[in-house]
Structures are given as structure tokens and as C-alpha cells.
Amino acid sequence: LTAPGDGTGPVARPGTAPGADTGWALAAGVGGASRVDLDVPAGHTVAVVGPNGAGKTTLLRALLGLTPRARAHRLLLGTAEVSGVPAHRRRIAWVPQDGALFPHLTTLANTAYGARAQGAGKSDARRLAQEWLDRLGVGELAQRRPAQLSGGQAQRVALARALAARPRLLLLDEPLAALDQTTRAQVRHTLRTHLAGFPGVCLVVTHDPVEAVSLADRVLVLDEGRTVQYAGPVEVARHPRSPWVARMLGRNAWPGTAADGGLVLDGGGSVAAAEPLPVPGAAGLAVVGPEAVSLHNARPSGSPRNVWPGTVREITAQGGRLRVLVAAEPDVVAEVTPHAVAELGLAEGSPVWVSVKATEVTLVAL
Question: Is residue 21 part of a domain?
């Protein structure tokens, strides 16, 4: 969704010379079913993550002005306040989950639509559209209609249409979800290259931790329409404040209540940590990487302070290693070598002992 410019100039980035690229920061306040405040510098990308029903798509639609469930009562793109502007005049480009291509237009005409709506001439819009189609690997499909495209092809065309529109704010709702793994990596690289020079702000809804880490400068974690965490990818990975995000990143996460020496878990059991939370009784999250979990045939002796029995529920390949899901209190995922699995004789249904050193447990206050 894009529209002609309103004459409001962008804010120049510090250090840019006259005529150099300028940018549009985002300052937004959203109320209703989604209650989020955002201040994002120009040129930054924010990954929006959270469980199903967390309000991710509702947030995007509120910024667009397309939902009665939530609305942006404050929406600054650079110096332009657009919260009261109709959706088609906000200079926002959107790629929804289904792509939303116009069925009666060719691929080229679909892609040129945004640039045309922004005021570009027909020939310039078509040239720019073809460039983006070529970059995303679907240039040879320029004369096909959406019904003649595969799901992955249609999503790449929708992405090309958004990028060709040169928006001030770019909203991508799981833009790579319909692509196969090889194509996803190629398009992710192209998207990352474009976003590195994009003068506005991009919000990307994703369930893929690789996308969140590789594309985003910041990660916004939502749950029930509220902000749970807003931080850089490294901080979110090290200290996730949501069990869902920790598990999305492949880590074990157990909520509980702070106690002397560790955490009493909500689901039963307890976990000791080398650095306990400072306030007893406070809500917290125990986070452990699967590579820090050891498995044994018998109860281990020695230094581990966290030891509990369980039953192997599932064994799956993860690159050159194996992930072992153990049903226990608490359930835990361990990442071990194929040699270790063979040596321990592990299979689905096998009894097993789990151990985790207290120094490998990170406690995060909630």
C-alpha cells in the first residue's frame, strides 16, 4: 500500500551531505487490542516475534490504519504525523502473508503498481519493477498473472512490489514463509542487502530465528498484544524474557519463582543457578542451552547441582548433531553427538538421567 508524497521532507541522517540519502525514523504509539510504543531510528529493521495470537499482524494493520481492533494514535514517519492520514496516503508498503497480488494484472504490472501510485511515470515504474523482479529471481515471469505463479513465486513478486515502491515504512508479514529453503536463503540475502541501504524503518514479522538474527537490528517480542521485550538480537538470545522466544531460539526455558539458590519451577521441580535472582518470590525464567545438557544411563555423581530422571521422547537430527527430547520434570532438550547417543544406547522410550551445571543456567527476571 503506497501513495503519492505529501511534500514533507525526510530527516537527514547525521553526517550526510546535501543530496545524500536521507531517512525516516519511526515513532509510534498503538492502542486497543495491541498496546505498543515504538521509537526506531531511520535505517533500522525490527523483527516482530511472538506466539500465535500475540498481536503481531494486528500491530502491522494498526500502523496501516486497516483494523478497528487497534489504532495508531501517534505515527511519525520522519517529521510527518500520519496517524490521521488515510491508509493509502501513509507512504507505507505492506507484504501480507498471502501476498495480496492483483489477480487481473501481470507480474510486471503488479510490481509497478506501487511506484505508479507514488507518482512515477509508466516507463520508469515498469523499469524499476523489472529491476526488482530480476533481483528476486522472477524476472522471467514478468508477463504471467498471479494464478500462474507458485506460492513462492507469488511471494517474491509481492516482495518486489513493496521494495519497488520506495516506502518510508516497510511492513513484512512473514515474507519468506512460502519459500523453499534454498530460495529463502537467496531472497533473505537480497532483502538484507536492500535493507542495509533502506532510508526508512522495516518491521518484519517472523517465526524464523535465522530471519530475526540476520535481518534485524532489534527484536520486538509480543504476547497478548503487549511488549515483553525490545532489545538487540544478541541480548534477546542471551536473556530471553519469554519462554516462547527462548524455545524459538532452540533453548530450554522454564518459568518459575525465585528462591534461595535458583528457581522453583511452575511445572514442578526446581533449578539451581550460580547467580540467583536478587528478589526471592519474583517471577523468573531459567534458560539453558541444549548443548549444556548432559545425558547419563545412571544418576551421575560429582559436581552437577541439577540432576533429574526422565524418558527419551524423541531424537531428531540437527546438522551434524542430534537433539534428544526428554520427558521429565521439567521437560528438556539436549544436543549431543551421534556417538554419544550410540554409546548410551538411547532410543525413544529409554530411561535416562539429565544433568545441568548451575553455571550453565541463566536466570532472567520477568
Answer: no
Q: Which residue has the higher pLDDT, 312 or 240?
A: 312
- Residue 245: inside a domain, yes or no? no
Q: What's the domain range around 267? A: 250-365
Side chain identity at residue 152, one-letter code: G
pTM: 0.79
- The 10s digit of each residue's pLDDT in 81-135 is 999 999 888 999 999 877 889 999 999 999 999 888 888 899 999 999 999 999 8
Over the stretch 54-86, which tens digit does the pLDDT of each residue have?
999 999 999 999 999 999 999 999 999 999 999
Number of domains in the chain: 2
- Are 361 and 335 part of one and the same domain? yes
CA pair distance 100, 94, nearest whole angstrom: 10
Question: Are 155 and 228 members of one domain?
Answer: yes
- How far is CA 36 from each of CA 16, 27, 30, 59, 230, rounded to the nearest angstrom? 31, 11, 5, 8, 11
48 and 89 assigned to the same domain:
yes
**Nearest alpha-carbon partner for 165 in 217, 120, 109:** 120
Q: Is 278 a domain residue? A: yes
Provide CB contacts within 8 A for 7, sequence distance 6+: none
Report in angstroms the alpha-carbon separations of 11 from 23, 25, 38, 242, 293.
Answer: 6, 8, 18, 35, 50
